[in-house]
Write a structure and sequence with these properties.
- The chain is of the alpha+beta class.
- Helix content is 22%, strand content 39%.
- A hairpin with a 7-residue loop joins strand 2 and strand 3.
């Protein structure tokens, strides 16, 4: 039983909470303990698309990490919090709000490959310790900047106050490792303002969109009805190729097999049997990630 599903994570729960609830529900339904994990953490203050993998589908998460994600984020100006979101304690407030024209110009400057420092309250490792644990203990957290990719930012709505921008809603498309809270902080700093992320919803992740997502409670109520075909997750990530039984057997034994395909990664199946992810290089194919079936 190996498949992936997009859950519409509700507010107030951690990604781990969702994994535990859904894993336990499915395990009870089928009478066997099922392995489960999530791809791409969503904080309790965020909601939206959280991809869960069951069984050996969790092996595909490394491939999913490199896929684009999209968010709808609300930034509120005039004050900030220690966590950079609405869950935190207000640490500074000056009421200064940015001009609309300047905001529109500044937002565009945060696209492309940018350097970003993750929030103090994040799961980033600092000398082997999670940053949020150090921050909660009142310790100084020196987190190095890292490169992230922000492919596109669009302003979808603005709430004004006395001719200035009080709140802005942004549609953001970005790569793995991008912190929207940091983006909120950095945009505000460029505007010489303060801000915090007052709402966040992930609308797509690793090929799964809001249209694919099911409510967590619906899944928990009847998990067996949401079991999917094993090859669906492969088709979300790669072009899927059908191979002959002889090639399939050789791949299972770890052999490189000559095949006329363009270099790259493919999902491979044989007679409705899902083999896994194969890498093609210089005219040869090799099974890179063995998934569900045995030799």
């Amino acid at each position: 039983m190996n498949f992936a599903i997009a859950i519409d994570k509700p507010l107030g729960l951690s990604s781990s909470d969702v994994v535990i609830k859904c894993r336990n529900a499915l395990s009870r339904a089928v009478g066997v303990k099922i392995k489960c994990g999530h791809m791409g953490t969503l904080d309790p203050a965020a909601e939206g698309v959280l991809v869960l993998g069951f069984g050996k589908a969790t092996k595909l998460f490394d491939y999913m990490q490199n896929r684009k994600k999209t968010y709808v984020a609300e930034f509120t100006f005039g004050k900030t919090t220690d966590t950079l979101d609405r869950e935190g304690v207000v640490t500074e407030e000056n009421g200064k709000l940015p001009d609309k024209d300047l905001l529109e110009k500044t937002v565009k400057e945060f696209t492309g490959e940018i350097m970003q420092v993750p929030p103090r309250y994040s799961a980033v490792n600092v000398n082997g310790v999670r940053a949020y644990k150090l921050a909660r203990n009142g310790k100084e957290v020196d987190i190095p900047a890292k490169k992230v990719n922000v492919y596109d930012i669009k302003i979808s709505d603005i709430e004004e106050q006395d001719g200035k921008v009080k709140k802005v809603i942004l549609e953001i498309q970005c790569g793995s490792g991008t912190y929207i809270r940091s983006l909120c902080r950095d945009i505000a700093e460029e505007l010489s303002c303060l801000s915090y992320m007052s709402a966040l919803r992930r609308t797509s992740c690793a090929g799964y969109s809001e249209c694919d997502a099911v409510k967590m409670q619906d899944f928990i109520s009847d998990p067996a009805s949401y079991i999917k075909k094993e090859d669906e997750i492969l088709s979300k990530l790669f072009e899927v190729k059908e191979i002959d039984p002889d090639t399939a057997k050789r791949l299972k034994y770890g052999q490189n097999v000559k095949m006329e395909l363009c270099d790259g990664r493919y999902g491979v199946v044989c007679e409705n049997e899902v083999l896994g992810v194969a890498l093609v290089k210089d005219g040869y194919i090799k099974l890179e990630t063995h998934l569900w079936n045995t030799i």
